[in-house]
Each structure stands twice: as C-alpha cells, then as structure tokens.
Amino acid sequence: MGGSEGARPRVSATPEATAASRMAAAASSSPSPPSPSPPGAASPVEEPRGGGGGGGRPPVPPYVKAAAGSLGGVMEACCLQPIDVVKTRLQLDRSGAYRGIAHCGATVARAEGVRALWKGLTPFATHLTLKYALRLGSNAVLQSAFKDPATGKVSAHGRLASGFGAGVIEALLIVTPFEVVKIRLQQQKGLSPDMLRYKGPIHCARTIVREEGLLGLWSGALPTVMRNGTNQAAMFSAKNTFDIVLWKKHEGDGKVLLPWQSMISGFLAGTAGPVCTGPFDVVKTRLMAQGRTGDIKYTGMVHAIRTIYAEEGLRALWKGLLPRLMRIPPGQAIMWAVADQVMGLYERSYLQPAHV
Q1: What are the start and end residues of every segment in region (Disordered) (predicted)?
Q2: DSSP states of 59-79 as a string?
Q3: Is residue 343 within 8 Å of 39, Cβ to Cβ?
C-alpha cells in the first residue's frame, strides 16, 4: 500500500500541450531572426569594402575602361603635343640642325611660330583617344581570358600577355595610320598652306593613299607593333605593381586612388618602355616619313637599323629618347589620373550598391 501510495498516476498529455512543446522545440533549434539595426549601423549581410580579387566584386566592364582611356587621351594630347613635335623633328634631323630639345623647340617657334609646336594636334588627339580606348578595352577583354577561373585573379604572365596583345591590336588598327599622317604633317616646315604639301590630316591621308596606295598608311607597321606590344606589356604590369607597392591598391578591391597617386604610378610605369623600345621608335619614324615613292632610303625595319647604325652610330638608334621620356611618362601620368577617376566613379555609382 505504501508503495502504491508513493507512486503518482501517469497523466497523458493533451493535444494542446503536445503542439505547444513542438513549437517550442522548433523555435529553439531554428536561428533567431535578425534584430533591426539602429540607424547608421552596417547591415549584418553587407560585404566589407575592399573585397579584393577573390571577394566576388564584379569587374569594371571593358567599355567603361575604354571610355576612361579615351578621356585621358584627350587631356594628354592637349598638354604634351609640343614635346611630340620636338621629338619628331629631332628624330628626322640628319644634319645636326638642332642642338637639343630646347634649341629645337625655340627654333621651331621662332622660324614657324608658336602654333607650329601644336602641328598635327588633330590627328594626334584623335589617335590618342581611339588608341587608349582600344588599349584599355582590349586589355580588359584579354585579361578576362587569362583569369584563373578558381580565384578570378590574373597571373604576372597573363598580365604581360594581355598588355602585349593590346599593344599589337592598337598598333595595327589605330597607331600606325594615325602616326603616318601625324609625322608627315610634323616634318613640314612653315605654316603657310601654300608652301605645305599636305594641307591637313584628311588631305594628307588622301594624298598618301593616292600616291602610295592604301598600304602607305601602314608604313613602319612592324616596328610599331614591336614598340607598342613591348610598351604595353611593361606598362600594364608596372602600373599594377606600383599601385600595390605604393598604395596597397589591388585591382577590383573597390579602392579609388587619389589623382596624384594615379599620376605617380602612371609616371613610373611609363619610364621603362621608351628605353627598351627606342630603336623601334626611331626606325618607325624614319620609315613613316620617307613614304613609298621618291627617295627610298630604308627598305624595312632590319635594313633601317643596320643603315642607321653604320652611318650615324649606335646612339642614333636612341635619338629623341629624352623628349620621349619627357612626353610618355607625363602622358601616362595624365591619362591614368583621368582614367582611374572615371573607373572609380563607375565603381562607386554602379558596383558598390550591388553588395549592400
């Protein structure tokens, strides 16, 4: 009896209690909903800025990079055209008429007027606009082909190959015909239209096609391809390296450099190319200037290098190097200062909100 009195009768659970216990168990096992954040606080699912190459941030589209490059090209052309005119005159000087950069510039301004220092600006600006659009756009397309599918990053070899390919494309499609016209205009002395053989860019191009055939616009194509391919392979790789080393800026991390930072990286990246490609540039200028009719002194790139070396010495293959160093690094500084800002504006306006 005592044992039976101490045992409590088992009470069966009601259906309401069973349902309540199940709901409590489900609530304890499922994650609690996020509590509302106070104003100004970051959302818990918001990705941090600076996700980097593997952070899932979409890249800047090639057409945006092309537009950024074209705007940078316009600014560069307007600022640096006089240096390009001096470089061309020095490279074409066989008799030693000019004693240096300052003397060449002063002689041109005194004999032909200050406006002569901007000869060929129209084709130069147009050519830079199209060249940089094609350069940055094609490099972006080629880099996407060389990306590692797992990490989304481009190796050093892939970056070099992309830059060289972009340089070859721009040399064949844009640079060669525009530089032929520009050099023909720049080598003319005087400002009076009656005294000039070529009256302007369009007249110059038409005259070349009529007298030399369509291929006359591609005189010096091979050294131009070699020069531009090598230049861009070095420039894109160096620009990326200097951005990382100097400013901890990785491509696609969402960080936008200040204009002066872009100028420093662009200036440094633009110094190696002219030293390495000086002979190609001199040969290109000589071949483009002589045309395909009349006095044909050079029959091709190799013949031109040999002839210049035999007649003028080894240093002649680097004629115009100093004005190239005065033009190309500052030009890259100006172009990248503009291009980085345009691409940064696009990232802030269209790419950042996608991650919030």
Answers
A1: 1-61
A2: PPPHHHHHHHHHHHHHHHHHH
A3: no
pLDDT tens column, 216-252: 999 989 999 999 999 999 899 999 999 999 999 988 7
Structure tokens at 230: 């090598």
Instruction: Check: CB of residue 184 under 8 Å from CB of residue 208.
Output: yes
Bridge partner residues of 154 (DSSP): 147
**Integer angstrom CA distances of residue 183 from 83, 90, 242, 296:** 13, 12, 33, 16
Per the listing, tokens 């190309």 go with 328
pTM above 0.85, yes or no: no
Q: Give dist(CA 320, CA 97) in Å, integer.
A: 14
Count of residues for the chain? 356
Question: Distance (Å, rounded) from C-alpha 72 to C-alpha 187?
Answer: 26
* Residue 114 identity: V
Residue 181 to residues 175, 184, 239, 243, Cα–Cα distance (Å): 10, 5, 30, 35
Cα gap 99→7, rounded to integer Å = 119
* Token digits of residue 322: 């100093």
Rg (CA), the chain: 32
